[in-house]
């Protein structure tokens, strides 16, 4: 694996490159209604299990055709052979990120990585010269789609870790290492662990943080290890995923723009390039 440099990460100075809106809705129609309400405030979206099961890979391609960059959050977790055969069917040209559970081990992560490479080559064969295809076959792990290893779900709190007999701080480092050694370009990790992982792993890995709950978010839900958008970025996250605080907001665009303002302020506080 060739580690990323900060300059090779798929982010820029536009705060919209740091925000993935989770399209956690059960149908294409509801997703399109939400995107219509969001307007130009969003350019990156996350498709999870619910919408993917409802609409399948073709809707991921439709989103890409409309200019959205898609984080396909399927959290693959099975024996390496099965994960490889699933990942090779990825609509590679339509996906920016794909997730696997790091707890599947580095061999499973490597299988997903190899599957992604095959999907990428297959996609390029339809529109590229033999020379271009060879370049794709030899491309390093920072060529999209980027594979991200999920460490611990943000719905797990300290009570669960105690019940499982797991040291959260130590184990998240082990999971991160397994994912990166398997070929992942980065991690999906809670803001609670970002600072220590960034210190240990340096600026190279991509860190995407879910479990984001801005100050205006109201009500309890199943997320436990949460943070605000600004806290996550200042802690070392490259991007955040936000679902219910935007999807359930009376005015989703206004909610997204408030989060973008917070991200912009956090980016301003950071050194020019991590």
Automatic annotation (TrEMBL):
It comes from the Bacteria. GO terms for biological process: 'de novo' pyrimidine nucleobase biosynthetic process; 'de novo' UMP biosynthetic process. InterPro entries: Aldolase_TIM, OMPdecase, OMPdecase_AS, OMPdecase_bac, OMPdeCOase_dom, RibuloseP-bd_barrel. PROSITE patterns: OMPDECASE. Substrate binds at residues 24, 46, 73-82, 154, 213, 223, 243-244. It catalyses: orotidine 5'-phosphate + H(+) = UMP + CO2. One of its GO terms (cellular component) is cytosol. Its EC number is 4.1.1.23. It is an enzyme of class 4 (lyase). The active site is at 73 (for ompdecase activity), 75 (for ompdecase activity), 75 (proton donor), 78 (for ompdecase activity). It holds the Pfam family OMPdecase. Transmembrane segments: none annotated. GO terms for molecular function: orotidine-5'-phosphate decarboxylase activity. Pathway: Pyrimidine metabolism; UMP biosynthesis via de novo pathway; UMP from orotate: step 2/2. Residues 18-259 form the Orotidine 5'-phosphate decarboxylase domain. Keywords: Decarboxylase, Lyase, Pyrimidine biosynthesis. Homodimer. Belongs to the OMP decarboxylase family. Type 1 subfamily. NCBIfam families: PRK00230.1, pyrF. Catalyzes the decarboxylation of orotidine 5'-monophosphate (OMP) to uridine 5'-monophosphate (UMP). This is Orotidine 5'-phosphate decarboxylase.
């Amino acid at each position: 694996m060739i580690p990323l440099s900060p300059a090779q990460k798929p982010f820029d100075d536009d705060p919209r490159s740091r925000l993935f809106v989770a399209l956690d809705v059960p149908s294409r129609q509801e997703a399109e209604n939400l995107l219509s309400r969001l307007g130009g405030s969003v350019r990156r979206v996350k498709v999870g299990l619910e919408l993917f099961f409802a609409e399948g890979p073709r809707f991921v391609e439709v989103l890409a055709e409309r200019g959205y960059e898609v984080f396909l959050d399927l959290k693959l977790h099975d024996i390496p052979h099965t994960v490889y055969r699933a990942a090779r069917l990825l609509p590679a040209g339509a996906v920016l990120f794909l997730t696997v559970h790091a707890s599947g081990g580095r061999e499973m992560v490597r299988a997903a990585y190899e599957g992604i490479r095959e999907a990428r080559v297959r996609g390029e064969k339809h529109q590229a010269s033999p020379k271009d295809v060879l370049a794709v076959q030899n491309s390093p792990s920072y060529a999209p789609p980027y594979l991200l290893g999920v460490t611990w779900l943000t719905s797990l709190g300290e009570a669960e870790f105690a019940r499982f007999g797991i040291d959260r701080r130590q184990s998240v480092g082990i999971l991160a290492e397994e994912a990166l050694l398997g070929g992942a370009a980065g991690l999906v990790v809670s803001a609670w662990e970002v600072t220590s992982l960034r210190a240990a792993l340096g600026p190279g890995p991509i860190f995407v943080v879910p479990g984001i709950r801005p100050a205006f978010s109201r009500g309890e839900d199943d997320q436990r290890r949460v943070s605000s958008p600004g806290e996550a970025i200042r802690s070392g996250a490259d991007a955040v995923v936000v679902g219910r605080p935007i999807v359930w907001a009376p005015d989703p665009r206004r909610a997204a723009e408030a989060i973008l303002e917070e991200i912009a302020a956090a980016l301003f506080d950071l050194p020019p390039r991590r």
